[in-house]
Amino acid sequence: MTMTSHHGSDRDRARRQPTRTEYPRRRPDQTQPKSSGSGQNSTAKGVWAKIKAVLDTPQLNYKVILSVTLMLTAIGLTMVLSSSMVTARTPDTSVWSVFLNQALYVIIGLAVAWLALRLRADTIKAISPWLLGLALFLQVALFIPGVGVGAEIGSHSWIRFGSFGIQPSELSKVALAVWGAAEISSKTRQSDEFRPVLGRFLAVGTAMVLLVLLQKDLGMMLTVGIVLMALFFFSGVSARLIALVGGVIALLATGATIAQAYRSDRITTWKDTLFLNFREGSTSGPSYQSYQGLLSLSDGSLTGTGLGQSRAKWYYLPEAKNDFIFAIIGEELGWVGASIVVVLFAVLGWFGIRTALAQADPFLSMLSATLTLGIVVQALYNISYVVGLMPMTGIQLPLISAGGTSMVITLGSLGLLANCARHEPKAISSMQHEGRSLFDRMFLLPEPLPYRAGEERRIERRNTTQRYGRPVTRRESTAGTAGQDVRRERDRNRRAQQRLPHRDRVPDYDGTNTWHRQEPLPQRRSRSSENRYSPRRK
Fold this sequence. Notes:
By secondary structure, the protein is mostly helical. Helices cover 59% and strands 2% of the residues.
């Protein structure tokens, strides 16, 4: 009995004890070298993760658009001064005259951009018909005898006010973009009213293109046509209709080219420049400007001759401060300086399209994409015909070429684009939760309002972690200005939430942007109880 119980207890004790199996440790093979592929992959993934985190930063599009605009404007002022010092010197003027005029236009343009930054999205929609009406009125006024000037230079497209002049076709680009985006985005493609809206927009756009064509300004007609095509493309219409509109614009441009002998000579010049087929005597005729532009670019080499050391501006290169200012950039700053300008325009285009894709408001999305495409394609065409890839049309380089109306309208357009970037949902949420930037507070920019509509378009990105909550709705004002009430209520809510424990801070997005205490957490009962976190008895 005793022995049996003893062996039985040992057997039970052995059964209760878990068995542990000892595995020999594997030593790494010293003969085979370690693979470095996994380490390189992890490093590349880490770098890409950091880049992605930077690109997902709220307000990044807004800050980059403003920074690139200011940098291109500064480069433009510097190059206008450098390229115009020789030709600006006359018995009545100084070498600074062209630069000072351009600086004045830049100041006016920055003021217009500041006003554009302060506008609400609904305000931009409301003024779009008036802006279009003003542009059409100025276009028609050009044909009144004694009003329009510029026929002596080949295009009847200027209205002179004393020593200043405006070019209505520059305003027509922005007016068509704003009004077209407001009209097309007001109706969905599935709506029965979308086709009449599209027909009305097509009629107005065609009238705008024909008015510019009657002024004999082929370059400006192409820029207005680019805006028209961009709006058609981003509206989501069929490719057949887009091809039809593009074909009509191409036919009009071809007819305008054939009708004027000097434009036909530009086509011949373009073919000679493209294949470097400069025959004897061709460099002194219609090909002279293109030939001198290529010589300027070749003189610049890699790093350039130095700022202000251009030889082409000494009456060799016509329009050195306007159409062919990129050739002066390539000569004085070399391939490096010219590449910086191209990269800045590419960055502007990329972040402009990012702004369009990040919008919740269809109007702001279409407007930002159209403005971006209009500015970047114009810059691309100017650079292309300077280097000999496209025929010359007289299109200026935005923000860099000397010009009053072009500078003011372009800065105003970029102000609208930056305003669209401020109204991104993630940017609005970041401003409301973390505060606005120093630039906004210094220039008294109002807090942007989130987009609210019956059918709100949701922007969802795969594999993206949202760090910021959705923007709060508009808060009603009880006294003072809306901005003061918003800041006062935000500070009061912030102090209220700081007095609460962290677990009780729950945001309420029901339209009041208030913070409230959540229901008390269930109290813990005895450890031996099965339902350890049962609700508290009332």
